[in-house]
Specification:
It is a multi-pass membrane protein. The chain has about 400 residues and is mainly alpha-helical. It has 17 helices and two strands. It has two domains: about 180 residues, Clc chloride channel (Orthogonal Bundle); about 190 residues, Clc chloride channel, CATH 1.10.3080.10. It is globular, with a radius of gyration of 20 Å.
């Protein structure tokens, strides 16, 4: 019998050793994620308690962020772009300074009311640690393998969804290709990071959804239409972000002027719109979507626009938690129109908008299972499949490669 041809094969001994290394990597990343995540939540609580004293200074915080990146950023200024360059073999190292730099600047963004996420930061933190581990090894594609391990650990440590984190790290760098060589070491890294951050008290969002719907053609059609709506929202976010970044750089080439003056305008908008309803991660909108609290028809759109504006002018943070908030609040609005349970549609939106904006398929489905219950995976699969298929030429990650026809 002829064996399966492999593009890269690691010996069993090396693979086992890498799994053990993954445990150490996961412990370190889990600790870093905990420090970053718990401090971020603490600062967010302070901003929520005193919005009128903090949000007006968003523009000034922006000046400090720009100064820090221009003074000491170096290659770290590329952020997720540098992670993708290392993953594609265009760069070899991620500077250690990225860790304190992206952590501090993201804290500043959230403390003073910017609308941003945290996932991009966690992935960068994990990727930096993984890249550092990789410098001590010498085998084919070792940078890609350790980067995947680190990204999986970073995502898992922050969100405590290790299975989703593993697939996110394996599929996000290039569409149509899974970095399966890193699968086993990534499992050890991701689960260790997730358990470490959980043990150290980092919060995990979960909401058990119990449904008893028959997956007939009527429900499949509704989920498909919802997936298309969510896919369009995700594509709108990705397109708006890349487009506005380019336009802002053209309209206001000086980064200090750009972040300060637009930041002042953002401060005013955030304060006028219910004193920071759309500031920060968007977890308030997520909670409202699943707890039956007050939601406006336009919540999802305002969160989308204000997050895009915040990130396009130079504030730091990720996009994923705002994408979760956009999807959940849009789902809560659409659910009555389709005659489906609000919690189920909000959950489908939560993962499907993320899928569309990041061009990932497997990770969102597993997020749905790990956060909302695996009994709902069949519903999530259909919604995500249609959201993912809308237009995979748009992505929040500008250096993501497309290897598919």
């Amino acid at each position: 019998m002829k064996g399966i041809k492999e593009s890269q094969r690691l010996s069993y001994g090396l693979l086992g050793l890498l799994c053990l290394v993954g445990i150490g990597l996961g412990l370190i990343v889990g600790l870093i994620d905990t420090i970053f995540g718990r401090t971020l939540l603490y600062l967010s609580d302070i901003r929520t308690a005193y919005p009128v004293y903090l949000i007006p200074f968003l523009g000034l915080a922006g000046l400090l962020i720009v100064w820090l990146y221009r003074k000491i950023g170096g290659a770290s200024s590329k952020g997720m772009g540098l992670v993708f360059e290392v993953g594609h073999g265009q760069e070899d190292k991620i500077p250690y300074r990225l860790i304190p730099l992206v952590t501090l600047t993201t804290w500043l963004t959230h403390l003073f009311g910017g609308s941003a996420g945290r996932e991009g930061v966690a992935v960068q933190l994990g990727a930096t640690v993984g890249n550092a581990f990789g410098q001590f090894w010498d085998f084919t594609n070792k940078n890609r393998l350790f980067l995947t391990m680190g990204m999986a650990a970073g995502f898992a440590g922050l969100f405590q969804t290790p299975i989703a984190a593993i697939f996110f790290a394996m599929e996000v760098l290039a569409l149509g290709q899974l970095s399966l060589t890193a699968l086993l070491p990534a499992i050890f890294a991701a689960f260790t990071a997730s358990r470490t951050s959980h043990y150290l008290g980092l919060e995990k969002f979960s909401f058990a959804i119990s449904t008893d719907l028959s997956l007939d053609w009527s429900l499949i059609l509704k989920l498909a239409l919802l997936g298309i709506c969510f896919g369009l929202a995700g594509n709108l976010f990705a397109y708006s972000l890349s487009s506005l970044k380019a336009k802002m750089a053209s309209w206001l080439p000086n980064p200090y002027y750009r972040i300060f003056f637009v930041g002042l305008g953002l401060s005013l908008i955030f304060l006028l719109l219910w004193q920071g309803r759309y500031s920060g991660l968007g977890t308030n909108l997520i909670e409202a979507s699943f707890e039956g609290e007050k939601l406006y028809q336009f919540d999802w759109l305002l969160k989308l626009l204000l997050t895009v504006l915040t990130l396009s002018i130079g504030f730091q943070g990720g996009e994923v938690t705002p994408l979760f908030a956009i999807g959940a609040s849009l789902g809560a609005v659409l659910a009555p129109l389709f005659g489906l349970p609000v919690e189920l549609v909000a959950a489908a939106g939560y993962i499907s908008v993320f899928s569309s904006a990041t061009n990932t398929f497997l990770a969102p489905i597993f997020i749905g299972g790990e956060v909302f219950g695996f009994s709902n995976v069949a519903y999530f699969f259909i919604a995500v499949a249609f959201a993912y298929s809308i237009n995979r030429r748009q992505s929040i990650y500008g250096l993501q490669k497309i290897l598919e026809d």
